[in-house]
# Entry
Amino acid sequence: MGSEPLAHSSTDVVVIGGGITGLLAARRAAHAGLGVVLVEAGERLGGRLASVTLEGVTLDAGAESFATRGGHVQRLCEELGLSADVVEPRREPAWVVGPRAAYPLPATSWLGIPAYPWARDVRRVLGWSGAARAATDLLRPGRAPAADATVGSVSRDRLGTRATERLVAPVVTGVYTRDLDSLALDALAPGLRKDVGQRGLIRTARVRRAASPPGAAVRSLRGGLHRLIDAVAADAVAQGARIETQSLVSALLPTSDGWEVTTAAQRIDAQRVVVAIPPHRVDELIGRTATAVGADTSRARYVAITSLVLDAPALDATPRGTGVLAQPGLTRAKALTHASAKWEWLAQHLPAGRHVVRLSYTLSHADEEVSSFAVSDASALLGVDLDPGSVVAQSTHVWLDAAPSAPPVGLPHGLHVMGAGAGLTGLAAIAQQVSSADFV
# Structure
């Protein structure tokens, strides 16, 4: 007997991927009055905005905050009726911890670049000589870095080695999971290379910092950033979008008037397709359609977030503020967030003496073991000797690394790649891309 024929339907837009990028794209197309079908391979929506429930509290298992720059996510929250639940973190500095020193990050910096190198908190980290070397950037004429200039080469040239290693490297590596010499300057922010050429590095940092909305540089939602997933999905469905989970796309082929999307259960004809999946999946799906999509699967890396719920009254004093960035050589973890110290809403949901910390790891393989290191790493980063018996609950979630990369090129008409597959990281950048893309 032959297999059953696939169900066949047609629509205006098919969105592949049910993370926040795909959901935002489906919502925008539905609001434009287009027919939309979103297909997600997994059982759940959310991607990097996943959640996990530990000891009765639902936590962010992935991204836990959004950048305020541009105001794109803030406007999204307002449109979804969530503006009253937007919260800022507590105003405590993040720390940098290394094998030989621990210090809070200077208050007036942008991605670790000291906006005022003579400030007391900068001199405390760099010393007089290091501050003086960084300040020479203000005396040098602007000169556009080379097109292939990295963050490391530009920072060492303009700020010196000490400022680069003690301030810029911990922050940038912690945010982008890449060392400075493998990260292009413009990957930090669009147009950064041009701005540095005109103003130098420190003045550019001042301008970028001043352009951010007042208040904290990041915000979240009371109850967790993962709440955006249900809110965006519900709004898209209310506007007529159809969302299907456990629907893996096996083929994407051009037709005479659009595209054909095939899953195990159906074939969908669409005028346009939005691909909102990780870079390696973009290559698998459209590698023969586009001339180059920029994903380097041979060097794929992974990111793991380990969440710990601890009975640890010693952490009540928040010994290292709201979080820690690790210098190389201290722990396996590259960063730690003291989540219950950072977010007031979370602290209110926990009994006295209980805390939540999140540790970030960069992995070579998806199945690499890290959870056994978590307590010892947290002890080293927080400067508190934590008993393994203090762990009430823990979980680890792993994703393919979504560090900035080259965007897809050579895409044919009607095919759009967005989010991580397009080399973007961060909710703010993704929300901006989706709101301005020409797929509707």
